[in-house]
């Protein structure tokens, strides 16, 4: 579903992605992990052309992401992207935040978009918050609205960049549970995360990055019990023992 071939990218003289190759098959959930500055955010942002690339090729669902003739608005409407910060419209209710893009971009009627919005929000445990404004919601609730907003566009792929890092500990679980249920529905997903327990339990593979390179791609059990590189062993030693 996602194919990355020989992708490199620099910011000025600083190479942040070096010859990246990656395949994410349909319906699989891949965790992207690694130390700060490894290039995780840069890589995931290239997948929907939020970042350009200097070399190589990326296709998502058959579309060449950085192709000259690719319609970026169309591409991005089919790739959900959830960030650390939720960026909901503060003057719109949860239901309105979710139904806005289907109405504006997909031309759905208000009634149709609002009904789907309510369904999605309910499925994410927010059935009693449809008419709440973002300012009246907890961080975990706002992040679930942001997930519903992406899902409302019927994406073929969902990307997450540290979706729980801005949340208080007690809210992390509700958001991870929502993502876990999404994985169970067969959505294709790439998730940058520092939640190692989640990566191990939910993801089909772990992609470990360091210094702009993919160091290894492995099934979680293998990665966490017998990492194939010193770099990964060192990283796991730090994150699992603090
Ligand atoms: N717009 C930019 N201009 C210049 N350098 C950048 C830019 N964005 C990222 N970088 C650099 O690219 C490198 C990789 O950054 P990136 O944000 O992808 O890392 P990361 O793995 O997501 O780290 P973290 O875990 O801290 O989020 C870093 O050295 C960063 O300083
Ligand atoms: Mg990052």
TrEMBL record:
Its main location: membrane. It is an enzyme of class 7 (translocase). It is found in: Cell membrane. Keywords: Amino-acid transport, ATP-binding, Cell membrane, Membrane, Nucleotide-binding, Transport. Residues 2-236 form the ABC transporter domain. InterPro entries: AAA+_ATPase, ABC_ATPase_HisP-typ, ABC_transporter-like_ATP-bd, ABC_transporter-like_CS, MetN_ABC_transporter-like, P-loop_NTPase. Its EC number is 7.4.2.1. The keyword Acetylation does not apply. It catalyses: a polar amino acid(out) + ATP + H2O = a polar amino acid(in) + ADP + phosphate + H(+). GO terms for cellular component: plasma membrane. GO terms for molecular function: ATP binding; ATP hydrolysis activity; ATPase-coupled polar amino acid-transporter activity. Pfam families: ABC_tran. It is a peripheral membrane protein. Belongs to the ABC transporter superfamily. PANTHER family: AMINO ACID IMPORT ATP-BINDING PROTEIN, GLUTAMATE_ASPARTATE IMPORT ATP-BINDING PROTEIN GLTL. This is ABC-type polar-amino-acid transporter.
